[in-house]
Amino acid sequence: MTDPFAFALAVFALLAVPGPTNTLLAASGASVGFRRSLRIIPAEIGGYAIAIAFLLAVFGPLASAHPALTVASRLVASLYLAWSALTLWRGAATAGRGVHGAITVRRVFVTTLLNPKALLFAFVIFPPPGDPHLALQAPLFAGLMIGIASCWIGFGRLLARSASGIATPARISQGAAVAMSIFAVLIGSSAIAAVLA
């Protein structure tokens, strides 16, 4: 995609929809607040940057030659999301006491690194390696990501404040764990379906 407006619109649409990383951003905003959650945004940027670069430069050519790699990568992502959901659920018990260690910079980085959205960014939205538009689109991508990540963190914080008693940090973390479990099942089942097809 070389048109800057179409690129920005596609990036915005994909980053704004709920997904594993956005779930963690909202849960962090709910549990530790907006300002303390800002530290995890660079982890999202780094995760997407590395994932997209790897997919464009290495994985794309390898997957063309070895289609089983695509299925294996989906299974790995599914297993990681399932493990992350379990850890997030267990960490929900301490969220209400302000001791919340489940949503770390590393967790956000790895979740983003394995996020299936990176495949769409790499193979549908970003131009191929060597295209001069790529260097211009990277800063636009990072800027949109910072803005949207901040909105997800703010949404989590707002939800925790406006529905106190109902939407406690512990319940939001549990809801985030359920959402991540659903993503894990969807990704894992698509990988299994690809194997059986």
From TrEMBL:
The keyword Nucleotidyltransferase does not apply. It is found in: Cell membrane. Keywords: Cell membrane, Membrane, Transmembrane, Transmembrane helix. One of its GO terms (cellular component) is plasma membrane. GO terms for biological process: cysteine export across plasma membrane. Coiled coil: none annotated. GO terms for molecular function: amino acid transmembrane transporter activity. The keyword Membrane applies. It is a multi-pass membrane protein. The chain crosses the membrane at residues 45-65, 108-126, 138-160, 172-196. Signal peptide: none annotated. This is Threonine/homoserine/homoserine lactone efflux protein. The lineage of its organism: Bacteria, Pseudomonadati, Pseudomonadota, Alphaproteobacteria, Hyphomicrobiales.
